[in-house]
Amino acid sequence: MVAFIAALIDTSLGMCYGTILAPILLIAGYSPEVAVPTILFSQLVVDIVGGLTHIKVKNFTRRDIKVALLVAIPATIFVSLGVFLNINLPRIITKACVGLIVTVLGLLLLLGVKLRKTSKRLVFISGLAGFNKGFMGGGFGPVVVSGQVVLDHDVRPSVSIGDIAEAPVCIVGLLASAVLGNLSFLPIYLIVTIPALIASLIGPHITIKISKKYAEKAIGMTTLILGFITILKVFFG
Questions:
Q1: What is the pLDDT of residues 93-145, one digit of tens each?
Q2: Distance from the Cα of residue 137 to its chain's centroid
Q3: CA distances from residue 94 to 31, 99, 108, 134, 231 in whole angstroms, order as listed
């Protein structure tokens, strides 16, 4: 149920899959070393199916390819660093930084602030999102999607790019987990992936129906809440 809801939100708003699923898996008793690969594997399936659906319903078109590459390449590079630190270092500093950045992005969206879109800004946001994905299993979408919207990119392609660009990030994250950790296929992978796959066929159709103004506010509010919760977890556990 949680995987279905998380994937539905992720493919319609471009975020929250790993952010919702990671704490649930930890509460259920799975270690971070199991939870993160589970999320990366199921997210890969969600991104492929959701991405193809976004293309089918024309949320993503040829003119969005350049931005998708600017998101995917730095994110894919930095995800391995995130996996390495997930295995070897304490998380409090990185969690605090990510929580702060996500909170600021949420506030900017809610206030309607727009920044001029440049390649350097997009690469910075994407690299941070990729690192966050490898480090915590979640947090890619809130940074990438809200970051694109703040940089005055249209909502619908921003959401679709968040899903499509995340696929190679998940692949590299899984490979890094296999090389740096002890990755093995577990039943939890399928338990999470199957309902998530079903939801990913539905989410992109919801994206079409959300108006630009409402979508920006919804993404902004969701991003702000996620950032605030991340900061609270850092300081209060």
A1: 666 766 777 788 778 778 877 778 788 888 988 988 888 777 766 678 878 88
A2: 9
A3: 19, 8, 21, 12, 11
Cα Rg of the chain, angstroms? 16
How would you class 120 by CB atoms within 10 Å of its CB: exposed for 0-12, middle for 13-18, buried for 19 or more? exposed
Q: Which two tokens stand for residue 214?
A: 């409402």
Tokens of residue 34, six digits: 């199991």
Residue 93 confidence (pLDDT): 67
* Domain span holding position 161: 2-236
212: tokens are 């630009």
CA 159 to the chain's CA centroid: 10
Report the amino acid identity of residue 186. L
Nearest CA to 137 out of 180, 187, 108, 95 is that of 95
Task: Answer whether 0.85 is exceeded by the pTM.
Answer: no
Q: How many domains does the structure of the chain reveal?
A: 1
Type of residue at 59: N
Q: Which residues of 188-222 are buried (b: 16+ CB within 10 A; e: fewer)?
A: bbeebbebbbebbbebbeebeebeeeebbebbbeb
How would residue 186 be classed by pLDDT, with cut points 50, 70 and 90? Answer: confident
**C-alpha span between 175 and 37 (Å, rounded):** 10
pLDDT in tens, 41-98: 999 999 999 999 999 999 999 989 999 999 999 988 888 887 777 667 665 766 676 6
